[in-house]
Amino acid sequence: MRxxxxxxxxxxxxxxxxxxxxxLTKRERFAEHSRETFDAVLDLCERLATDRFAPHxxxxxxxxxxxxxxxxxxxxxxxxxxxxxxxxGIVGAGMDAExxxxxxxxxxxxxxxxxxxxxxxxxxxxxxxxxxNVNLLVEHADPELVARFVGPMVEGRSYGTMCLSEPQAGxxxxxxTTRAERRDDGTFRLFGNxxxxxxxxxxxxxNIVHLVLAKxxxxxxxxxxxSLFVVPRFLVDADGTIGERNDVVxxxxxxxxxxxxxxxxxxxxxxxxxxxxxxxxxxxxxVGEEHHGLAYMFHMMNEAxxxxxxxxxxxxxxxxxxxxxxxxxxxxxxxxxxxxxxAPQIPIIEHADVARMLLAQKAFAEGGVAxxxxxxxxxxxxxxxxxxxxxxxxxxxxxxxTPIAKSWPSQWCLHAxxxxxxxxxxxxxxxxxxxxxxxxxxxLNPIHEGxxxxxxxxxLGRKVVMDGGAGLAVLLETVTxxxxxxxxxxLTEQADAVGAAAERAGAVTKALWAAGDPxxxxxxxxxxxxxxxxxxxxxxxxxxxxxxxxxxxxxYAGKRAAATFFLRYELPRTGPQFALLESLDRxxxxxNPAWY
Length: 596
Prior knowledge:
By secondary structure, this protein is of the alpha+beta class.
């Protein structure tokens, strides 16, 4: 039976026929692997996602985590699925062997993880936050902290969080007030509140390792005074023994529209309910140097941003497959122009407008997955490419693509979910069909890990102009190289469309930054993010066309149809958007709050 989570055939195409991940096994880091090991892990993840994660997806939505004033109650199926995940060693899929990881290419690990995100985005969030937590600690923490906290997380016995936002600050991290007071023993005591903490409190693991942003009194103002701390739920001795409860207290659980199975919390640090060592405050351990915490946290934030995009793409994909399955079996109406009312009804997939909606979903979902896996491939290049120049180039391109990788799937794969509901008609709006929950679960992602507005500012305000415009230059060079190969392969129409859009993106970027007023330049940065994102995904569809070549069969014909749809129906959206941006329109900038 064909999976309704993801298409294994499509993953094989993206991994092997396009990104050629097997070639990575020639590099020292991945020399112990082969196509066979990659496929075996993918098989395992598909099976675990199907058997352990998908069955309780609806149950966890109906019976969301409850706080009784003392502890959080979560349905037992969540813990059972997570234990199977941990026992299989998947937490460490892309991690170094020396800390217990499988040391797979990140491209393969990302494809593996998406099975779980498609099956049950809420349960999958617990280990995926943990993966990013571990990666930050390995990169930036002292070896003693790594030795104390990382092993149990890699083994799936502990989970990790990221604690950034506060009720009064939101995304404005310069305004956080959580403080960290130094102690003579080298530790700190933390006091403050953190909001929107996914996985912040539960009984699913023996410990929870919080990574907390706080300010040390006397430090610089704003973001330059932020430090990063490990604050465990339970203290851990040097030999790994779990000790007394830390002063981290659950103040409440947020009740969400979707993604309801993942507990989301308000945490109080240093409330005084627990006094480890007889002193007030939550015990914290400094990560790296003082006042460099936000820079360290960006390591986890950027990984989480791509992870949010991956989750959005996975949900867009499973919604598409559900809609496709429904459209193949649901009969209704007759062909346009048919005159005989007694003729049998036809499957709705044969109606042109339903075909349009399915093709749009396919273009968005497969385009989104391609974007995420391409970013993962860049991470592999950054880690293992042969020269410093190649590694630096991959790092720069990944930096530019990160806000797009987070936001484009969050917008357009959510739109795919909306179309999936539309294909189902009235049934799609009911809870008896999966697409209703899939849409609600995906609706978090345009907000999660930064709104479109934040990432538009990041892309236009920082990423495309960093290093004197090197970020934009490397993106346009990469797109132009693909356009050249496509022209040589005879894909003239498609290459011309993508090439013209990329040139337009470059010209508009220069015009925006020639305005001389950053407020005008950035006023419509969300539109810039959307337009450049469409150009990027059009480029990746051109890449897929080249990989498909002139191979025959339904799969390749479907690839060509989806690429054609995106280039003819979607890429032209960018024309009016770029025209608006180039005009330096001030409509939103000049809006008086009294006029609303």
